[in-house]
Amino acid sequence: MRRIVICLRKVLRVAETPALLEVEHLQKTFEVRAGLRTRKLHAVTDVSFTVSDGRATVIVGESGCGKSTVVRLIARLLTPTGGTIRFGGSSYGGRLRRRELLRLRSEVQMIFQDPFGSLNSSHSIGYHLSRPLFNYRKCRTASEARERALQTLESVGLTPAGDYIDKYPHELSGGQRQRVVIARALIVEPKLILADEPTSMLDVSIRMDILNLMRKLQRERGLAFLFITHDLASARYIGDDLLVMYAGELVEGGPVDDVVSAPAHPYTQLLLSAVPDVERNTMLEGETAPGEPPNLSQLPPGCRFHPRCPLAMDVCRKEAPKRVQVGENHWAACHAVQGNPGPKVI
Ligand SMILES: Nc1ncnc2c1ncn2[C@@H]1O[C@H](COP(=O)(O)OP(=O)(O)O)[C@@H](O)[C@H]1O
Ligand code: SF4
Ligand SMILES: [Mg+2]
Questions:
Q1: Which of 77, 101, 171, 338 to pair with 114, CA 20 to 30 A apart?
Q2: Ligand 2: which of 303, 331, 337 to mutate, judged by most atoms within 8 Å of the beta carbon?
Q3: Secondary structure in 3-state letters for the chain
Q4: Low-confidence ranges of the chain (pLDDT < 70)
Q5: What would the pLDDT profile of 74-85 be if each residue is shown by its tens digit?
């Protein structure tokens, strides 16, 4: 009975959870110089998804498919070419004023891939943690900032915090630096954390520790996470919802257990057939599907996956597939998908 109640609560929580972040038809085209000419590189085309309050959404896909560009657009490190981004009900797709940008940055924090490049070697850990508190007007005095920095270092497992706060980044290991980067993101109490492959540059032996830490913090604090990875094993481990990205667009999405247990898109199936088990195997690099992804300046017509797809049909070479519902909150963009009880274009 208790299990049924817990399951019901879980289902209701999913159904009722409001969307914190809504991304609609997001696009980013880069102008790239090739000799004397410039060509257009379509890094992100028509990407739409939502991230709900308190849930961890993961975008998975091969290197170069546009994952980092999506998070950089949301963090407004890049300006979108098209589409809308709404956060907490406010739209911020166009040009932002300084005040709007400050508000956004205090609520949306980013954890970068490289723990070495994201900390300045000439500043102490205490400085790195107190600076955002002053920048975003989250505290007034140096002693208050130090106290919050100590508490946050403890919460990311750098204990006793007094041993770390006056150190410099070069005195810490890669894993410890990434914990500091996580602490810096947490200290301003954001609503959403964007984590761009936060474990991929770490030693294999400590990746699991950092993943565990992020999962624990996300669950305990009820934070919304958008986690980017090329590795389905970590996606499966940390995510509530999974989005699969291929060549600048999303091809499948849904609750992580549903997508992993019943992948509908041939690309997701190929990714899954090469995935190691994160709990048994520690973290191995996820292998990629056979074949090459397309050139983003010369995208193939129809379904972008058709040159690599074992199920490709004539229609796939001509028409881009639309999203089809294949389960509750689970969709795939593929002409071959058979929905149950019947495909419904969404
Ligand atoms: N600032 C940029 N200028 C030109 N091309 C870029 C820029 N940033 C990314 N790209 C290109 O956009 C595509 C997607 O890149 P990225 O979002 O970094 O992919 P991922 O994170 O999935 O590996 C790649 O072809 C990359 O070379
Ligand atoms: S639309 Fe066609 S080519 Fe694309 S994934 Fe589905 S079956 Fe394969
Ligand atoms: Mg990237």
A1: 101
A2: 303
A3: CHHHHHHHHHHHHHHHCCEEEEEEEEEEEEEEEECCEEEEEEEEEEEEEEEECCCEEEEECCCCCCHHHHHHHHCCCCCCCEEEEEECCEECCCCCCHHHHHHHHHHEEEECCCCCCCCCCCCCHHHHHHHHHHHCCCCCCHHHHHHHHHHHHHHCCCCCHHHCCCCCHHHCCHHHHHHHHHHHHHCCCCCEEEEECCCCCCCHHHHHHHHHHHHHHHHHHCCEEEEEECCHHHHHHHCCEEEEEECCEEEEEEEHHHHHHCCCCHHHHHHHHCCCCHHHHCCCCCCCCCCCCCCCCCCCCCCCCHHHCCCCCHHHHHCCCCEEEEECCEEEECCCCCCCCCCEEC
A4: 1-18, 93, 275-289, 338-346
A5: 999 999 999 999
